[in-house]
Design brief:
By secondary structure, the chain is mainly beta.
Length: 520
């Protein structure tokens, strides 16, 4: 029976027609998935095969499936309800189905020699040896205290202050609801985020985890979750992948779509895996819903982490050159993270212990972040002049003169001690300010009006190697989550439903591809 040209998202119901006195209904399988009851309803998103199976009257159908509802095998009892030895052998010969992070324990029916009085669906049972997983929970309270077992279902409720925005699990947006239920897959970091600039989209939500590389041997695994908006019904969901970077969608050229067909009814989670011997592709979760005649596809949020540094608080004196003859220069460095208008800055020279400046020069122009500004003596070495920005008599210093960087007329950084005459030079163990090139250590990230010789590396006379650039190791940094909303699109395609009828025998299909649907 063929039902062609159904609109995308159409709800189709398959009924099991009678097959006369010799056969009776056994089950319906839709695209390889076992369903319950005499009818099966599903939304169309592609060409679909629904198969109705029958059994001889008086026998019982024993259907064996895995956790994805994929039918593995079906056998039929004799009219006395007992499986033949051959049928028992078929079941016992099945390979133990795997499930990420768990070990197969047994089938739900352990004795196949018993008398079956009704049809039975047999499925695998699993155990876990991991019972010590932790949860670092911020701004929330868990329904059960840890430690937790792998595959344990947990509900958390946000209890922070302010306006709740979303749950961030292991660095990814996991839910937009203050109450969030999920499956423990490892030791998780979970935070209820409040009072950000983030504005959630309306409608259904789909999230996707980072890659788990140890849940299934030989595979990378990702876990998705769906929150359906009121009035919206599922049509299809899963993963899309692409070699292209960024926010891929179903409209991206060359995008690959992999559908999941198993959703955990308690958590609305789905699991998908891809072969580990390949690179992790750019992937994104999607969900397509229908509300009346409106079809909409939404995608998981695009997330990236931008490193934001705690930049220098202001300009600093980064280099002091007091060499032979007129080889003298002062270098100013900007690592504030922004371009700086130099018109409010100046350099001042305090000679021979004077508490007041004898020479001052105003700076000009704009200094980009990461760049230097070099004030030099007009008679300096050609290397210094080539790196220079301004020639000035403020460089007429010797090893006993102090120099200050001023902002709006007030000193913010100094070289030497203003108002103190050290004699010939300021000296310390292994260092002197006379006939030396001194470079500010990279660990110094801000100006200071207290001279500290420990902040400077000392080089030989006329060392020009470091003039014209400077390096600063920022003292601390943080990763800031950058969130882009999910795109959405409507779609309208035609699919057909092919309904076949098999009597007494059944086949089964296994999805083979880059991704395969797995149950949590």
């Amino acid at each position: 029976m063929n039902v062609p040209d159904n609109n995308y998202g159409t709800l189709v119901t398959v009924n099991a027609p009678s097959q006369g006195a010799s056969y009776e209904f056994a089950g319906i399988v839709v695209d390889g998935k076992v369903t319950d009851g005499l009818t099966a309803s599903f939304r169309i998103y592609e060409d679909t095969v629904a198969t109705v199976y029958y059994k001889p009257v008086g026998s019982q159908a024993i259907i064996v499936k895995d956790t994805n509802n994929d039918q593995l095998v079906v056998v039929y009892t004799e009219t006395n309800g007992v499986l033949s030895s051959a049928s028992q052998l078929v079941i016992s010969s099945l390979a133990s189905p795997t499930k990420p992070g768990l070990a197969f324990s047994s089938w739900s029916v352990t004795d196949f020699t018993v008398t079956f009085t009704e049809d039975a669906v047999v499925y695998p049972l699993y155990t876990t040896a991991v019972n010590d997983l932790s949860l670092n929970l911020i701004n929330g309270v868990a329904s059960v205290e840890g430690p937790y077992s792998f595959n344990q279902v947990l509900t958390v409720n946000a209890n922070g202050t302010g306006t709740f925005k979303y749950w961030l699990k292991d660095g990814r947006i996991a839910s937009l609801d203050e109450t969030y239920t999920f499956t423990i897959a490892k030791a998780h970091e979970l935070e209820a985020v409040y009072d950000t600039d983030f504005v959630a989209n309306t409608g259904s939500f789909v999230g996707i985890s980072d890659v788990y590389d140890n849940l299934r041997s030989g595979y990378y695994t990702v876990i998705g979750n769906i929150d359906l908006a009121t009035g919206e019904e599922l049509v299809e969901w899963g993963i899309i992948t692409s070699d292209l970077p960024g926010g891929i969608t179903l409209d991206t050229p060359g995008v690959e779509k992999y559908n999941s067909n198993k959703l955990n009814s308690g958590t609305n989670e789905f699991v998908m895996s891809f072969v580990k011997d390949s690179e992790v592709p750019n992937y994104r979760a999607f969900v397509t819903t229908i509300n009346g005649t409106t079809v909409k596809t939404v995608y998981s949020y695009i997330q990236d982490f931008e490193t934001v540094y705690e930049y220098a608080s202001d300009l600093i004196i980064s280099e002091y050159g007091e060499g032979s003859s007129n080889n003298k220069w002062i270098e100013i460095y900007n690592r504030t993270g922004s371009a700086v208008d130099l018109s409010i800055y100046s350099l001042a020279l305090y000679s021979n212990g004077s508490p007041t400046a004898g020479t001052t020069v105003a700076l000009s122009g704009t200094l980009a972040s990461g760049d230097v500004y070099v004030v030099y003596n007009a008679g300096a070495n050609a290397t210094v002049i080539a790196a220079g920005d301004l020639s000035s008599k403020v460089t007429y210093f010797n090893g006993d003169d102090a120099v200050a960087l001023l902002k709006n007329g007030t000193a913010i950084d100094v070289f030497g001690v203003i108002g103190t005459d050290p004699g010939t030079a300021w000296t310390w163990d292994g260092g002197t300010t006379l006939d030396r090139t001194l470079v500010r250590k990279s660990t110094v990230t801000g100006p200071t009006t207290t001279w500290n010789s420990a902040e400077w590396d000392v080089y030989a006379t006329d060392t020009f190697t470091y003039v014209g650039f400077h390096t600063m190791t920022l003292s601390s940094s943080q990763s800031v989550l950058i969130i882009t909303d999910y795109a959405f699109s409507g779609c309208s395609t035609l699919s057909s439903v092919y309904i076949s009828q098999n009597i007494s025998s059944i086949g089964w299909d296994v999805f083979v591809g880059c991704f395969s649907g797995l149950n949590i």
